Amino acid sequence: MANGRLSIAAERRRQRLLAALGIPALVLLAMLFAYPVLRLMALSVEGGSLEWYAKALSESLYVEVYWITIRIAIIVTLTALLLSYPIAYLLATTTPLGAALGFALVILPLWTSILVRTYAWMVLLGRNGVINKSLLAFGMIEEPLALLYNELGVIVGMVHVLMPYMVLPIYAAMRRVDPDLIQAAEGLGARGPRIFLRIFLPLSAQGIFAGSILVFVLSLGFFITPALLGGGRVIMIAVLIEQQVRDVLNWSFASALSTVLLIATIAIYGLAQRATAERARVAQ
Amino acid sequence: MLGLVCAPIFLFLMLPLVIVFPLSLSSAPYLQFPPPGFSLRWYENYFGDPVWIDATIRSLMIAATTTLGSLLVGMPLAFSLVRGRYRGRALLDRLAIAPMIVPAIIISVAVYGIFAKLRMIGAWYGIALAHTILALPFVVIVLGAGLRGLDESLEQAALGLGASRWQAVRRVTLPEIRPSIVTAAVLAFITSFDELVVAMFLAGSQMTLPKKMFDNIRMEIDPTIAAVSVLQILVITAGLLIAQRFGRGATALDVD
Q1: In A, residues 169-188, which contact B (CB 8 Å cutoff)?
Q2: Is B252 helix (H, G, I), strand (E, B) or coil?
C-alpha cells in the first residue's frame, strides 16, 4: 500500500476477481431465467404476426379476465390497506414487548404455506364451513351464505396472504417519523386526532404507497388462491395462462398473455420507482 | 380504542393457522367443526401413505439442494455486487432480483418450455434448479445486507498480517456474516419447500409435498391435509426459530 501505482494495479486485479465471482450466478440466471422468459415472449410473435395479441386484447371473454384481475387487485389492495394501517400504527406506537408479539402475529402467517392457509379458508368459508355453521347456530342467517368459490372467497384469501406485505412497509415508514415532531406538536397544543391527520398520516404516506404498489402487483400475478378459492369460477390472468398451457396447449396465446402480464408488472414497478425518486428529489 | 380495532384484525390473521390444529385431531371422517372427538388417524394416514411420505422426502431433497445451490452461487454473487465497481454491476444486480418481481406463473411456464425440450420434466433436480433461481434474490438481499454492515478493516488487517485473500475471507469475513448466512439458508429452504407453481409444471407425474397438497385440496378434502398442515407449520416455525436464534435481520422480508 506504500506504492500508489501498485495498489491501483492490485485494486484492478481485485475488481476483476469480484466481477468473476458474479459469473456463475450470471450463467445460471441467463440459462434458467432470462433465456426462458425471452423465449416464451418470442413465441407470441412467431411467424411475425400479432394475431395472438389481437385475440388477447380484443375478445370480450379475455378482456373480462383482465377486468376481473384488475378489479380483484384493487379491492384486495384497498382492503389490505384498511386492515394493515391500524396494525402498523399499533406496532409502531406500542411497547417493545407488545410490538414483538404483534410482529409475531403478522409474520407467522407470512411464513405459513399458502396452501395451508388456502385450505383453512376453505374450511372456514365453505357452505358447511365454520362461519356459516356458527351464523346459522346463532340464528343470524337462515340460509348458508355463499362465501366460497366466488370473488369474495378469493379476495378474503388474497388479503390474508398479502397483508404482511402491506403492514411491513407502512410500519417502516411510521418508525421513521421523528418523535420530536409529535412532541413539538403536542407542546404547541395540538390534540391526538389533529396530530395524526397533520403529521402521522402524511409522513407515513410513503409506506402506504410502497405497500399498495407491492400488494397490487403481487395480486395481478396471483395463482394459487384464485385457483382454489375461486373453484374454477373466478378466472384471473394467471389462472388463464395456466389453462392455456396445460389444458389447451396454446403456447402462442399463453405467451401473449404472459407478455401482457409481465409488461404491466414491470411498468407499474418502474412508474412507482420513478415517482419515489421524484419525491425524494423534491423533498431535498 | 386502537386495541379494539386491531383485535379482530389479528384474529383474521391467526384464525386460518389456528383452525387446522383441532381439525387435524378430529375423529370425523369429513370436515366437521367443532370436531366430535379426538383421534390421531389423520396423522396415521399421512405417515402410513407412501405417496405422502414420498412427496415429503422429494420436497426435502429439493429444498436442501436449492439451499446449497443458492448459497454456493449467491454468496460469491453477493460479494461481487456489494464490493464490485465494474461495468455491468447494476445490471447484474437487477437481474438477480428480477425473479422476485416476475410473477411465478411466467417463470414456471417459461422454464417448463425449456425443460420439456430437454426432457427434464419429472426430474427432481430440474425443480431444484428452478427453485435456486427463485431463492437467489432472498440470498442476495440478506447476504448483501450482512456484507454491507461489515467492517472491512478487519479483513484488511488480516491481509496486512500476511493472510491470503481466500484465508482472510474464510477466517474473518465468513464467520462475521454467519448470522446472515443462516437466515439466507432458512429463507432459501422455505422458498423451495413451500413452492407450488413451478413444481406443478416441472414435476410431471412426480409429486412434491405442495403439489400433493394442492391435488388433495382440489379433489377430496379430508382432514389428512389438516394433519399435513400442522406438521408443515411446525417445520416452518422450527426453521424460523433457528433463524431467530442463529440468524440476523431476520424473518421479515426486506420489502422496500
Answers
A1: 169, 172
A2: coil
- Same domain? A274 vs A138: yes
B252 shares contact with chain A (CB less than 8 Å): yes
In the block, cell 373466478 appears at: A234
Is the pLDDT confidence value at A192 over 90? no
DSSP-derived secondary structure letter, A46:
G
Is A75 in the B-facing interface, judged by CB distances under 8 Å? no
**Residues A26, A140 within the same domain:** no
| The pLDDT of residue B243 is above 80 | no
Residues A116 and A4 in one domain: no
The pLDDT value recorded for residue B248 is 61
Q: Do B47 and B53 touch, CB atoms closer than 8 A?
A: yes
Residue A131 shares a structural domain with residue A262 = yes
Split at pLDDT 50, 70, 90, the class of B255 is very low
Looking at CA atoms only, how far is residue B168 from chain A in angstroms? 14
Give B43-77 as a DSSP string. HHHHHH-HHHHHHHHHHHHHHHHHHHHHHHHHHHH
Work out how many domains chain A is built from and give that number: 2
CA atoms within 13 A on the CB side of B162: 0
Contact A238 B256 (CB under 8 A): no
Residue A38: CB atoms within 10 A of its CB come to: 11
Distance CA B81, CA B98 (A): 15
Q: CB–CB of A128 and B112 under 8 A?
A: no
- Number of structural domains chain B divides into: 1
Identify whether residues A39 and A56 lie together within a single domain: no
Q: How far is CA B197 from CA A201, A225, B105, in A?
A: 38, 11, 6
User: What is the percent of chain B with per-residue pLDDT over 90, rounded to a whole number?
Assistant: 57
ipTM of the complex, rounded to two decimals: 0.88
Nearest CA in chain A to B83: A18
Q: Is A89 helix (H, G, I), strand (E, B) or coil?
A: helix
- Say if B27 falls within a structural domain: no
Domain carrying residue A26: 1-43
Residue B48 has pLDDT above 60, yes or no: yes
Q: Which residue has the higher pLDDT, A20 or A129?
A: A20
Query: Range of B100's domain?
Result: 40-246
Q: Which of B89, B103, B232 sits opposite A238 (nearest CB)?
A: B103
Residues A89 and A115 in one domain: yes
pTM over 0.80: yes
Q: What is the CATH number of the domain that holds B111?
A: 1.10.3720.10
